[in-house]
Predict the 3D structure of the following.
Amino acid sequence: MTIRVGVVGCGFYAQNHLNSWEELKSSGAVLAAVCDVDPAKAEAAGRNFGVPFYTDAAGMFDAEKLDLVDIVTRHETHRALCELSIGRGIATIVQKPFAPSWGDCVAIVDAAAKAGIWLAVHENFRFQTPMRHVRRVIDSGAIGQPTWARINFRTGYDVYRTQPYFYDEERLAIADVGIHVLDLARYFVGEVRHLSCETQRRNPKVRAEETATMMLRHENDAVSVVECTYGSRKLPDPFPETLLEIEGENGAIVVNIGLRMSVTSGGQVLEESIGSPLRAWTSEPWHASQEGAFNACQHFLDCLKRGVPADTSGEDNLKTFALVEAAYKAAEEKRAVEPETWRRKG
Ligand SMILES: NC(=O)c1ccc[n+]([C@@H]2O[C@H](COP(=O)([O-])OP(=O)(O)OC[C@H]3O[C@@H](n4cnc5c(N)ncnc54)[C@H](O)[C@@H]3O)[C@@H](O)[C@H]2O)c1
């Protein structure tokens, strides 16, 4: 079974998606066409990957027989593009953040549900090899039920060089990277009952917050601290590693810089390196993020072929997006906030 994929958006991060679909050829993915409103980017991607290129998504959807659309544009375009692909009956993946507002995200999920269209959000941190490893340790029961966690993405790496639009975003740390770490908190510890949040703007060149410290109370009573910053001064800089401590009833998992994991279980300590593998088209230090994107695409392809929802389906990702919204509200109102998903039916 082959799946013809059309990629919309050929900018910075889309290169990882394009390479992933190319590598997934042996698993049945066919990169069929690419599209970018910037003709130079569309043409460069089309020529690099030897596929037709378009500057208009609707034109590409009409001209190519696509089984899957992969949207890798920035969030302000996500709703319109999703509605376009869903409206044409094409399975759709959209990059995080799902959309600019809660209302937009719900509208996309509802449109897909109404049309019976498979929808996934390209949330990739939980697909990174080290994070999968941590989850396997939790699933093994080695530490028992998680009761407390600290999960952090703290860096001073110059992310503004490849993503200059970060300077002008109305929302930065939580919406861009906190969203991944909040998703990991759900993935490792469980759904969230309420959260509080303090934001900081320590870099005057940046319009929005570049640091956030969040505290979550989970449904199972566990507590987690979720931290993210693009303004760390710490050396060595762990970019783009997510570091963590998870304490359970019977033990603990610690992931330190260099992706060294130690698992304490039954009074014994096991040390292991859980670094991200390099793929032919990835390079340090981004490889940890790049291979997460590959693993995510592989998962989406597999789920679509089997006709099952992705782990990060649209419906699932509403729960992560609700945490982002709750975090901004909590920071603004200086109080703990329940995520919107608590109030959503079904
Ligand atoms: N998962 C991750 O780890 C990760 C990392 C970086 C970026 N991202 C996400 O990837 C997305 C893209 O980010 P980026 O840094 O590559 O941005 P970018 O600006 O480099 O690329 C976006 C591209 O989309 C094109 N575009 C805009 N509107 C379009 C439309 N209607 N039709 C076709 N093309 C259109 C632009 O011309 C541009 O080339 C964002 O949602 C970002 O949050 C995710």
User: Anything to note?
Assistant: Residues 3-117 form a domain with the Rossmann fold fold (CATH 3.40.50.720).
